[in-house]
Design goal:
The protein is an alpha/beta fold. The chain contains 19 helices and 17 strands. The chain has a 7-stranded mixed β-sheet. The protein is globular. The N terminus is likely disordered.
């Protein structure tokens, strides 16, 4: 039987793999050429000769005539976009807030007892009572005189308080001449001028030796004493309460002199122990022998071993002055006897009493004092272990212990270098390991870091290098590297260390020959509005955002910065990029002119800088 023949199967070309790939390739090419042709013109129009702006560094890029190939890595952190001004501008406060000091408000002070002048201590509004508006400038406000001209003159329209010029006319504190305030340099104990007065002190205290760099002036008036000490390279922290001597601290700051509200009342002064080489009181009306010598013991706490205390006014020179003081001679005589007994029990040594001035010196250690106190009933050594605590810490009538030494010739706490070498020499607190985070190596590295940073700041804020900013504040000063790096500028820096910072470094700052204070930035600073030309804030906002306890908002801190910054001033805010964006959104609503730039670490680093420059406003 024959086998049936079947026709061969017809193989579909589409089922052959090679042909299938071939047809797909042809289709893709056709689509590509069609798409390329249809979008030819639009493609050319979108070609950019430069990389996108978010990848630019702070340095300007030259205009290139043609497209260049870019082989740089683009996986970097870009600058954030400009923030939108949500909600519009913030409102200004009423005109009666022009010179408002939240923590020294006289209306609030009336709620507190007057015993020991407690009503003149810091009494800040509660968190929900803080200002939510911008403190306005006074009418006819003018840019302050530049330094050193500001030492002698200020615009009356900026500080429109004539009362002090009338009340202290015979003592030459300040005069009003036309539209200006003139500061002749007088004071309660030196109506002929502070220069002659300081010359008298110089005959007893070695002001030109380089060993005296930081001074404290209690009851400073308009800070003419501190102004005269600048001739000796001595930096003075001038303090006075907000009392009947209207706006004396504001006068001082308008002159370009370091000053802040402060009073010897209930709490310790906001400075660490062993801060000042010299303390001064010129008829400052402090009852030194009252309350078991409480206030003089506080001076002892902040005075360095071997430091000087200068006193003029009652009861010094009472024999020749009691009639002018309108006080009974017997009362003044007894007051001086009590004062001499108190300083003896503090183990101070009287150096001299010449004319209206008396000078004592604190011992360099407590070896002899320890032996003497065993025989006396009072005063006693303090049991307090943290002698540097100075933020809302009540004073105690006791002697603050000096660091122990084994040799009577040794200086407690170590020897400080003479000024100006002191500024960039590792302080004893670092050499002795008081600050566990800082050591000698990190100290010198920090100096180099801030030298680099200041150079970068000056390239952005041209007015910085030109010496336009006189009163400068560093809101989170660490060990004072920022202030040390601008030492050659005609400026001074208020170095602020938050009281709850991880490391209490304010003592290190003072040992470098700089000045500063403790602070809680959830409260207002102890100063008047418009008193600082430049504010530097490094990590301040991230510090307060990360707190576990109830904290203030970024807005609260920025409102306070607005209050104390002069209208034509500047601010440098460096922090994490996320925080900088939030801050930028708020400063735009405050009418500040600002821009975000990379830090000196470049575009790869998450830390960014917000530069605020209102110089042309």
């Amino acid at each position: 039987m024959a086998t049936q023949q079947h026709p061969p199967p017809i193989v579909s070309l589409i089922k052959r793999p090679l042909l299938k790939v071939f047809f797909i390739a042809i289709a893709c090419c056709v689509c590509y050429f069609l798409g390329s042709y249809s979008n030819h013109n639009s493609t050319i129009s979108t070609i950019q000769p430069h990389p996108p702006k978010c990848f630019l560094s702070n340095a300007s890029t030259p205009n290139l005539p043609s497209l260049v190939l870019d082989f740089e890595a683009h996986h970097i952190l870009p600058l954030p976009p400009e923030s939108s001004k949500n909600g519009g501008f913030f409102d200004f406060c009423p005109a009666n807030f022009t010179h408002y000091c939240p923590c020294q408000d006289r209306s609030r002070a009336k709620q507190f007892k007057t015993t020991k002048f407690f009503h003149q201590e810091r009494h800040c509004p509660g968190r929900h009572q803080a200002l939510q508006c911008l403190v306005p400038r006074p009418n006819w406000y003018r840019r302050p005189f530049p330094w050193p001209e500001s030492r002698e003159y200020a615009w009356f329209s900026n500080v429109p308080f004539p009362k002090l010029s009338l009340y202290k006319k015979s003592q030459n504190w300040v005069r009003v001449e036309g539209d200006r305030l003139v500061f002749p340099g007088g004071g309660t104990s030196f109506p002929k001028g502070a220069k002659e007065y300081v010359d008298q002190i110089r005959r007893v205290v070695p002001l030109m030796s380089g060993n005296i760099r930081t001074a404290l002036d209690v009851g400073c008036g308009v800070a003419s004493f501190g102004a005269s000490l600048m001739d000796y390279n001595i930096l003075t922290m001038s303090i006075a309460p907000a009392d009947l001597h209207e706006a004396q601290v504001q006068f001082a700051l308008e002159r370009g002199l370091p000053a802040m509200h402060g009073i010897l009342s209930t709490y310790r002064l906001p400075y660490p122990s062993r801060s000042f080489d010299m303390a001064h009181c010129s008829r400052c009306l402090v009852p030194w022998t009252a309350y078991d010598g409480l206030y003089l013991m506080e001076i002892d706490r902040v005075l360095r071993p071997g430091g000087y205390w200068v006193l003029s006014g009652p009861p010094i020179s009472w024999k020749s002055s009691y009639k002018g003081w309108e006080t009974q001679a017997g009362e003044l005589k007894q007051e001086q006897i009590n004062l001499e007994d108190l300083v003896r029990r503090l183990c101070w040594k009287k150096i001299a009493e010449r004319g209206p001035i008396a000078v004592w010196r604190k011992p360099t250690n407590h070896i002899h004092c320890t032996q003497k106190l065993k025989a006396w009933k009072s005063p006693r050594f303090c049991a307090e272990t943290d002698a540097d605590a100075g933020w809302y810490r009540e004073m105690d009538p006791c002697i603050t212990r000096l660091p122990k030494v084994t040799d009577i010739r040794k200086i407690s706490g170590g020897v400080l270098a003479k000024w100006p070498k002191r500024l960039n020499t590792a302080p004893p607190r670092i050499e002795d390991g008081v600050d566990r985070r800082a050591n000698v190596d990190t100290f010198y590295k920090d100096n180099k870091i801030w030298t680099k940073r200041i150079s970068y700041y000056g390239s952005v804020l041209k007015s910085l290098g030109a010496g336009r900013y006189r009163n400068i504040m560093d809101m989170n000063a660490d060990i004072g590297g920022f202030a040390a790096a601008i030492f050659n500028l005609p400026a001074w820096v208020m170095n602020v260390v938050p009281f709850d910072a991880q490391n209490n470094t304010l003592g290190i700052i003072y040992e470098r020959g700089l000045i500063g204070t403790y602070m809680n930035w959830c409260e207002a600073f102890s100063t008047y509005p418009r008193t600082y030309d430049l504010i530097h804030a490094h990590g301040v906002f991230s510090m307060y955002i990360d707190k576990d306890f109830p904290r203030c908002d970024i807005l609260d801190i920025l409102f306070e910065m607005y209050r104390i910054l002069r209208p034509e001033g500047a601010a440098i805010i460096r922090d994490h990029v996320d925080i900088i964006v939030k801050v930028k959104g708020i400063t735009d609503r405050m009418r500040w002119k600002s821009k975000i730039l990379h830090s000196e670490y470049g575009p790869f680093h998450p830390e960014k800088i917000l530069f605020v420059d209102n110089s042309d406003i």
